[in-house]
Amino acid sequence: MKARVHVMLKDGVLDPQGEAVRHALLGLGFGTVGGVRQGKVIELDLADGATEADVTEMCEKLLANTVIESYSIQMS
């Protein structure tokens, strides 16, 4: 079983890395870009019997800083 965790900064949290990407895109002539938020994707190979609750616990304890980040989980 696989799980994919998407981690993003919460709305209202400054994203300097996203802002640097936005600035670079504008410099390359991509004037239609209004904003960029950068996040991360974590792919987990899980043992049989692992549950979404297990992945949620992983996120809460290690994979996401829940003070400033939100996350979503996709299981397959």
UniProtKB/TrEMBL annotation:
<comment type="similarity">
    <text>Belongs to the PurS family.</text>
</comment>
<keyword id="KW-0436">Ligase</keyword>
<comment type="pathway">
    <text>Purine metabolism; IMP biosynthesis via de novo pathway; 5-amino-1-(5-phospho-D-ribosyl)imidazole from N(2)-formyl-N(1)-(5-phospho-D-ribosyl)glycinamide: step 1/2.</text>
</comment>
<comment type="function">
    <text>Part of the phosphoribosylformylglycinamidine synthase complex involved in the purines biosynthetic pathway. Catalyzes the ATP-dependent conversion of formylglycinamide ribonucleotide (FGAR) and glutamine to yield formylglycinamidine ribonucleotide (FGAM) and glutamate. The FGAM synthase complex is composed of three subunits. PurQ produces an ammonia molecule by converting glutamine to glutamate. PurL transfers the ammonia molecule to FGAR to form FGAM in an ATP-dependent manner.</text>
</comment>
<dbReference type="GO" id="GO:0004642">
    <property type="term" value="F:phosphoribosylformylglycinamidine synthase activity"/>
</dbReference>
<keyword id="KW-0963">Cytoplasm</keyword>
<dbReference type="Pfam" id="PF02700">
    <property type="entry name" value="PurS"/>
</dbReference>
<dbReference type="InterPro" id="IPR036604">
    <property type="entry name" value="PurS-like_sf"/>
</dbReference>
<dbReference type="GO" id="GO:0006189">
    <property type="term" value="P:'de novo' IMP biosynthetic process"/>
</dbReference>
<comment type="subunit">
    <text>Part of the FGAM synthase complex composed of 1 PurL, 1 PurQ and 2 PurS subunits.</text>
</comment>
<keyword id="KW-0547">Nucleotide-binding</keyword>
<keyword id="KW-0658">Purine biosynthesis</keyword>
<dbReference type="InterPro" id="IPR003850">
    <property type="entry name" value="PurS"/>
</dbReference>
<keyword id="KW-0067">ATP-binding</keyword>
<dbReference type="GO" id="GO:0005737">
    <property type="term" value="C:cytoplasm"/>
</dbReference>
<dbReference type="GO" id="GO:0005524">
    <property type="term" value="F:ATP binding"/>
</dbReference>
<protein>
    <recommendedName>
        <fullName>Phosphoribosylformylglycinamidine synthase subunit PurS</fullName>
        <ecNumber>6.3.5.3</ecNumber>
    </recommendedName>
</protein>
